[in-house]
Design a protein that fits this description.
8 helices; 136 residues; mainly alpha
Length: 136
């Protein structure tokens, strides 16, 4: 009676890979998951000697009824939220709010210039502008 009933979901969620995936999805969706470093999730940067984990390539959120592996890889189909999540993968999440305020979606990313990034979106750092333009 004193034993806790453990279901399949609890067993799967105990694996570090799935904990990282859930934390990444929660942080990308603006949830309260908070990412790595929470209780029960190992800090990957400490395990690798202070080296952060390699960046993953960006995949936009699944549309309702869509399965994993069917993600739209066409940047022009990205939503404003997808662009914000993409900025996070570039380690430029600090620009998520200006991009959202300007309603920059995937199709609009192709039209952005260095001048737009600097004057309209307020990205002063030249290498950050270069990183965004080269990643598109």
């Amino acid at each position: 009676r004193a034993m806790k009933q453990v279901g399949a979901a609890n067993t799967l969620m105990a694996t570090p890979v799935l904990q990282d995936l859930v934390a990444a999805q929660g942080a990308g969706a603006g949830g309260a998951a908070g990412g790595a470093g929470g209780p029960g999730s190992p800090d990957r940067s400490d395990a690798a000697g202070g080296v952060p984990p390699p960046q993953r390539s960006f995949k936009p959120r699944l549309a309702p009824g869509q399965f994993s592996g069917e993600e739209a890889n066409d940047v022009a189909l990205w939503t404003v939220a997808d662009v914000g999540a993409w900025l996070e993968t570039l380690s430029l999440g600090q620009y998520r709010e200006p991009f959202a305020d300007a309603a920059v979606d995937g199709a609009f990313l192709y039209d952005l210039t260095d001048e737009d990034l600097r004057n309209t979106l307020g990205i002063e750092h030249g290498l950050h502008r270069k990183k965004i333009l080269n990643a598109v």
